[in-house]
Amino acid sequence: MSTIKEYLTHEHKECDSFFSDLETQVANREWESAQETFGKFFHETEAHFQKEEKVLFPALEEMTGSSEGPTQVMRMEHGQIRSAMSQMDQDLKNKDVDHFLGLSETFNILIQQHNMKEEQILYSMSDNALMGRKDQIIDLMEHVEVE
Amino acid sequence: MFSSNLSLDQAPPLSAPLRFFLTAPLFAIIASIFIIVNPEAMFMHKDLMTIAVVHLFTIGYFGLIMLGALQQMLPVLAGVNLPRPVVLATLSHILMVLGTLGLSFGLIYFHSIIMISSLMLFAGFAIILLPSLLLLLKGDFQNPTINGMRIAIVFGLLTVLLGVHLGLSYSNYNFSVLHQSFVDLHIAMGTMGWILVLVISVAFQVIPMFYVTPKFSKFCMKWPFLIAGIILFWGLFVFEIFTGRVVQIVGVLLFVVAMSAFASVGLKRFTQRKRPIADTTVWYWRLSLGSLLLTALVLIAKTVLVLDGLEYLVGVLFGFGFGVSVLNGMLYKIIPFLSWFHLSATGRFDIPTMRDFLPEKGAKRQFYLHLVALIALLISFFIHELLVVAGIVLLLSFLYLWFNLIQATKLYVQESKKEPVMAGGMSWN
Ligand code: HEM
Ligand SMILES: [Fe+2]
Ligand SMILES: [Fe+2]
């Protein structure tokens, strides 16, 4: 059975790969495939965020007895990333290549920094702190209902 | 479990790093003017004008930009934040600006201010580097970038300390018998220990992250330690504890191997990008790593073939080709990103994108000027008369860069004056 870190890091990689496909398709003005890729990319990212927000973060917050601090910052960053994604969606509809690429640049840095903090700091902590419940947590994340 | 100094908090206020980024080009501009006014000096090793130009670049450009970037990177890389960021930034920045001007003009015109300027520089570096080092040592997290940064910061502080000693020697024109040994160590620590190790450590994170490439291998991640070892070995040579030509050649070849290993793996990563979009910063990275490879070649020629007078080429290739290129590429990413980021943190919605802050067209044109400047500087090695022209292109390339950065800042200021669009303004800071 994998660790929490491995499980979630793998999802980051999957989202990355959808994202670079998406960006390439927009740069080449392949609007139809871009729309389709965006759908998958958006769904994967959203599902991943909700696994963290509904399962992992609450579990960590329970351990520390506080909903402030690192998990709070991660939630806020999800907000920023979501807002960038919804604008990218808008640009796709308007077929605005320049605006999209300006935004996807920002999106890439935001998500990479965010993932890096999680992979190097938060996930490692989670594996340490939630050691005994690791399998249960992964199972809960597998079955999260994505809204 | 969450240690007290851990904060995944986002970033220090924009003004803290930005002042470093926006003033650094000024020193490169002064250096270009020195070159235009007194080109012949650049080919004379140890000319005070040359030493001044070298420090306008190593301290005024590289030093300032890296001090700014460090403040920005600590929270992201290590989950730590400098305390009182604006106070530290203000103090350090004032000392660095006055110190750099004092040292460079002092070396040429007024020796009496060299000492005080050196001390100001030491303080200016230490105000940011010491707390950063302590935070990086205390932090609970280990990664190759953090390890590399610790090493680079230690060498940076040692370089500056040795610099103060050299500055003292120049201010009262009293040189110890060991002067040349101190100089050689100062140079090795400054270029290999501080500049190279810092760039390598940043590259470990930034290249895979910004350009979505495979990570550097476990072995590559050990480079900072290996380079630290080579510098210690070199130190024993320059202080004549180890002697002989063989030792010298071995030492230089070790540096050469380290430089070319990093440069070639780095260049390879840029062929493995999953994000195929090649903006100007990709070209800056390539030029930088390519120049590093050439530096290694020239170093071999210099030591093994004992060709004299190659210091100029080494300086141009390493300082400008490698150092300035990588910094320009970094600035072109950092400034538009931070501008966007800080606006978005105040809850605005319809913010200009990174490309609005730094239009790709302007960045690309500036890159071409930079490239022409590098080529002209290299040709000037063979045709000394050309250096004036090279200096003028150099000056133009930095003026253009400065213009680009100021345009971005202007747009930021203009946008930040607008009322947040979203009612209530979700605050992300
Ligand atoms: C307080 C700060 C510093 C002071 C006062 C200082 C002072 C000096 C002095 C007086 C020399 C001339 C030595 C000689 O050849 O007799 C020198 C050389 C040199 N320094 Fe610094 N230095 C400082 C910081 C740095 C830093 C941070 C670097 C970064 C790489 C650096 C790189 C060099 C290089 C490459 C040379 C050789 C220049 C040449 O031979 O033309 N210095 N330094
Ligand atoms: Fe997340
Ligand atoms: Fe995540």
SSE arrangement:
The complex is a heterodimer of chains A (147) and B (429).
Chain A: H1 4-27, H2 31-64, H3 70-94, H4 97-129, H5 134-142
Helix pairs in contact in A: 1-2, 1-4, 2-3, 2-5, 3-4
Chain B: H1 15-37, H2 48-78, H3 85-108, H4 114-138, H5 144-171, H6 179-211, H7 223-238, H8 245-271, H9 280-304, H10 311-344, H11 354-357, H12 360-380, H13 387-417
Bound molecules: protoporphyrin IX containing FE and fe (ii) ion (2 copies).
The site of protoporphyrin IX containing FE (HEM) has 26 residues of chain B, from helix 2, helix 4, helix 5 and helix 6.
Can you tell me about this structure?
The complex is a heterodimer of chains A (147) and B (429). Chain A has helices at 4-27, 31-64, 70-94, 97-129, 134-142. By secondary structure, chain A is mostly helical. The mean pLDDT of chain A is 90. Helix content of chain B is 75%, strand content 0%. Residues 46, 50-51, 54-55, 58-59, 63, 103, 118, 121-122, 159-160, 163-164, 166-167, 170, 183, 186-187, 190-191, 194-195 of chain B line the site of protoporphyrin IX containing FE (HEM). Protoporphyrin IX containing FE (HEM) binds next to helix 2, helix 4, helix 5 and helix 6 of chain B.
Q: What is the number of E strands of chain A?
A: 0
The termini of chain B sit apart by 24 Å
How far apart the termini of chain A lie comes to: 27 Å
Oligomer: heterodimer
Please outline the major beta sheet of chain A.
Answer: none
Topology as H/E string of chain A?
HHHHH
Helices and strands of chain A: which structural class?
mainly alpha
Count of DSSP-assigned helices of chain B? 13
Fill in the keyword field for this structure.
heterodimer, A: 147 residues, mainly alpha, 5 helices, 85% helix, 0% strand, elongated, B: 429 residues, 13 helices, 75% helix, globular, disordered N terminus, disordered C terminus, binds protoporphyrin IX containing FE, binds fe (ii) ion
Précis, in short:
The complex is a heterodimer of chains A (147) and B (429). By secondary structure, chain A is mainly alpha-helical.
